């Protein structure tokens, strides 16, 4: 029967990040604008994320662990939805580009040598 998880089975839920600044940028800008490297959420992304977080809380989603992409937009989404849970950053979850030789700025993580963005 669809939707029933057997006792003791692990359930995995995937949630995509809220709207990012890159997603509202013009296509040409999105492909080359260095200010979009590891960009954050858009104002609309922030507001819809707040509403979605309320829905997640009201649905009493049970989780033990959050595994998230290292990109800011994904981390912000995960930490907003599940602030009380342990969070593991997994580099293999970062978005990739169709062309392995040309990665668009939003999918490049920020340098580890730069001051990190505050996510709280």
Account of the protein in words:
With 120 residues, this protein is mainly alpha-helical. The chain has a single domain (22-107), classed as 3-Layer(aba) Sandwich (Rossmann fold). Helix content is 27%, strand content 5%. It contains 3 helices and 2 strands. It has a two-stranded parallel ribbon with strand order 1-2. The model has no long low-confidence stretch (mean pLDDT 80).
- What is the CATH T-level topology? Rossmann fold
Computed structural class = mainly alpha
Termini, distance in Å? 40 Å
User: Would you tell me the overall average pLDDT?
Assistant: 80
**Strand tally:** 2
List keywords for this structure.
single chain, 120 residues, Rossmann fold, two-stranded parallel sheet, 3 helices, 2 strands, 27% helix
Concise summary:
The chain is mainly alpha-helical. Helices cover 27% and strands 5% of the residues.
Q: What does the secondary structure layout of this molecule look like, with pairings?
A:
Blueprint (H helix, E strand, L loop, with lengths): L26 H6 L10 H16 L7 E3 L3 H10 L5 E3 L31
Parallel strand pairs: 1-2
